[in-house]
Design goal:
photosystem ii, T9SS type A sorting domain-containing protein, Secre_tail, disordered N terminus, photosynthesis, single chain, PSII_CF48-like_dom, 4-stranded antiparallel β-sheet, mainly beta, 35 strands
Amino acid sequence: MNKTTFLFSTLLSLILSVNEVHSQWTKQTSPTTSDLEALYFINATTGFTTSGDVGRLYKTVDGGVTWTANGNYSSRDIWFVDANIGFASSTVASSSGTMKKTTDGGTTWTKITAPNSSSYLGVSATSATNAYFINTEDKVIKTTDGGTSVTSYTIPLTTPASHNLTDIFFINATTGYLTANNGQVFKTTNSGTSWTSLSTVPLGSGFNSLYFIDAMTGYVAGSSGKVIKTTDGGATWVDKSITGIIAINAIKFFDANVGLAVGLSGKIFMTNNGGDTWTEQASGTTQHLWNVFFLNSSSAIVVGDAGTILKNNAVLGQEEFIPKASFSLSPNPLTNVSVLSIQNVNDFSSLELEVYDITGKLIKRNTIKSEQYLLNKSEFTSGIYFLKIKKGNKVFETLKLVVQ
């Protein structure tokens, strides 16, 4: 259901205060009256949604304000690696296939031969060649060559006859998660070769959606407003459920604090404290909502039944407003020295840099005192790192650093 690009490429434009954020959801002109479910943005302006009813993919290049038809394919879920390469899954079995790949931004699609005739419910890709699909036979279908060939893995659901896999999300090339509507969550750390059921997950609610903001912190959501959160890569979970909602169909987070959950009957809930509290927002519709995607910290797109497309432009609380701050890292990958550049920050007091490795371990913390901060190769071993720029408990930005 919910797919999204890994969060770390998006610039943080606004930092929300702990005050309530009052949001305005505006209905956008839709290209269809059919139900919309899949949703994916490759940046703040360019994104895709699909209608399974009529088998069309729609594209926007202005942040969801207008949409145009861009290819024929009935899709339940989509995931784009870049502006051209994407993967899609479909519940509709036909000659066009239930798994497909595009290399031209969704205009044309190439069929990936499926190992069975099941409906395909979700997809997550880690590169232009590596992608994972889930189907209604409790299987994960993996390709490592862009769809030329596939391998199938069966997930050991405790009640396979009456329950399905519902969502899949990889946080990097090796580590991914699965949810099922019987309340199980599975994890792989070897690129899908094997999957382990996480026994610490509190059962009792069917799960529809999952999202991880980094290697350690993730959320799973589903029926009866159930939301659970992990901060240790799935080892333990805490309850962050939402009251007053029947079912959550999709959950997304922009950063460690700001998140949205959408569900049946037009329900939209927002948190700005990492899920500790949720505030219901007026969506202006009673249509079932199926997906949400952040464009930036103050704006998001929601899609749902009857061609519903909503866009949010937040109005901040009146007390705290931190002007636009921008952060860049160059060169990246780091081969000798890289420079973290910071703009539109007037007050550097208490501004800190935290560096985490791919496992989520904090390996470096330092104070940022000026517009430029130097990172030396001698401080790191080769690998992938995540840089968090913080002031107190507020995260300004998270950047991905590759060290060669």
